[in-house]
Amino acid sequence: MKPDGLESMAAGLACPLPIEEDSIVQLAHGGGGRKTAHLVDSLFLPAFASPALDQLGDGAVFDVGGQRLAFSTDSFVVQPVFFPGGNIGSLAVHGTVNDLAMCGAEPLALSAGFVLEEGFSMDDLRRIVAAMAAASAEAGVPIVTGDTKVVNRGRGDGIYVNTSGIGRVRDGIQVGPDRARPGDAVLVSGPVGDHGIAVMAARSGLEFHTTLLSDSACVLPLVRALLDAAPATRTLRDPTRGGLATALCEIAISSGVGVSLDEDAIPVRREVRAACELLGFDPLYVACEGRFLAVVPAADCEQVLAALRALPDGDAARRIGEITDGTPGRVVLRTGLGSHRRLERLSGEQLPRIC
Amino acid sequence: MKPDGLESMAAGLACPLPIEEDSIVQLAHGGGGRKTAHLVDSLFLPAFASPALDQLGDGAVFDVGGQRLAFSTDSFVVQPVFFPGGNIGSLAVHGTVNDLAMCGAEPLALSAGFVLEEGFSMDDLRRIVAAMAAASAEAGVPIVTGDTKVVNRGRGDGIYVNTSGIGRVRDGIQVGPDRARPGDAVLVSGPVGDHGIAVMAARSGLEFHTTLLSDSACVLPLVRALLDAAPATRTLRDPTRGGLATALCEIAISSGVGVSLDEDAIPVRREVRAACELLGFDPLYVACEGRFLAVVPAADCEQVLAALRALPDGDAARRIGEITDGTPGRVVLRTGLGSHRRLERLSGEQLPRIC
């Protein structure tokens, strides 16, 4: 097994600020921001230290008999389990397929692990499983093994789904969060924040309505087109929990570079912007489940955008900024008014149980 | 990908008896017996049909670039999370390592997915993670990727852990639940039922006490010794949920053979037998987490037993019966009194949340 730069990422994620030790688990520990990073750095990484260990985030890459395999796992606890544009089943398939795609891998097989609550509707389970099957067929990645556990009434929340996946990293492709270099271009494959806002809108008790659908989707066709157009792509990352801002902060920290973003270039749907204003959220921190960020050599940027825009889901792909030799780890947003705002990783928990 | 006989196993498990459709999930659907098999056969298998699909039980085997990879997943919801002889963390590592071993594979890497309940003790999490790390180191199988989600207070049960794993099937080894042949010997690697009874004894409200420890352990060293001694081994199976009886019924169904067992030969500790009498359980249906069943050619039986008994955890390995050309799927127990008793798969739920 070879490290693939993952240890350095782990080291890079060590939080530079003192954070109090917590004696109990809080929702923010699952938020994908600072608290999650602290839990990973202080508890999981020291315990599980190994050459192939990734930052317990997207996926690990290691060598098996001369082939580079990618391996990823994700548990899904989204509430509600049915939301506009998808459900926990389709989301679970897209999530792990996309995580493998972010490793530069062609996914080969998925597993499905269910934790069901006693009393959960069998019809709902059937709908969820059908959505998983459809998402698996569409992505071309079979679900080959599984497991079902049932917990007592009141000890779960209907259904939790874990998907894990194996993929084979494409020949000649070497992507990683630590490979961004000054001068590289930063792209996003489509508008951000749709998933988070669609799920929030579906949550009972909220007082706003929207026609917005989750962006939950398989990004494989777009990633294939991107890697064909730019085999020297440095970094791929899906901005799920913690959103675009947190994902870019982690890339900046891991690569030891600065990032300069152009706020006006970041695609955000009007409905997402309106909902965020209503709820007091920043769309740059709202989760997507069918978008990705890419860092590519500047010279490849135009051909990558052309390749993405030629595909149905890629028409809104945009160059949103560049990697700089500024302060390592610092992500700066140039606002429409010409001012600059520093983006930090998500602090606390903006949208619990979004995936 | 090649089927590896898994489809036929799936077909073999189709329940010959009419079972009522259930409209809600019941604890028995997670029990590992008939209800679980019915859920798998009627809901999961039709949806996820693919050449590499296993019976959503132990693991799938498929070809990647000329290598046979094994892939397995398991979610752990055991209550209580700490029990004599282990905890949910060590159990989760042993469980998936053992599932890969049951595929004839050398495990290469594990993933760890946590679903934590808000308010769970960070100290308990630290103990669980330390146990996972120790079990991973002892087995020589690194945890390379992970994921953490947090659910609201009252929507979980402290901690659920999913482990998935990848392994490489040993050269020349071809094991499967459908490969048992009349005349083969049936072995068990040690006494059965320790895990189930140890967990039950740790459950609050129960009125019996025992010094018994769970058998939760990594079976890799024993399996390596067995496969070295008998490369023609037909079937490996760990008798977890549903116990020894259910595991043997499934082998009998998949292989289309009969099984004849000698009750007096099946090792059961005195404490387990006593607790089972007290609780009204049959030890042959109580879960083990560090034992396995093996079907080997009769001619290899003695050298396999010698190889197992030479190892610390294998001293109680026994030949417990043989594969027959009797009614396909029928497992018959010859009792100490000379009578015969048919063993069926676990019906309902004997010991909920044992793993």
Written overview of the protein:
Two copies of one chain form a homodimer. The first copy, chain A, is globular, with a radius of gyration of 19 Å. Chain A has a domain of 159 residues: Alpha-Beta Complex (Phosphoribosyl-aminoimidazole Synthetase, Chain A, domain 2). In chain A, the strands form three sheets. The first copy, chain A, has a seven-stranded mixed beta sheet with strand order 9-11-8-12-10-13-14, sandwiched between helices. Helix content of chain A is 30%, strand content 23%. The N terminus of chain A is likely disordered. In chain A, strand 1 and strand 2 form a beta hairpin. In chain A, helix 1 packs across helix 7, helix 3 packs parallel to helix 4 and helix 6 packs antiparallel against helix 9. The first copy, chain A, contains nine helices and 14 strands. By secondary structure, chain A is α+β, with helices and mostly antiparallel strands. The longest helix of chain A is centred in the middle third of the chain and has 18 residues. Chains A and B meet through helix 2, strand 1, strand 2, strand 5 and helix 4 of A and helix 2, strand 1, strand 2, strand 5 and helix 4 of B.
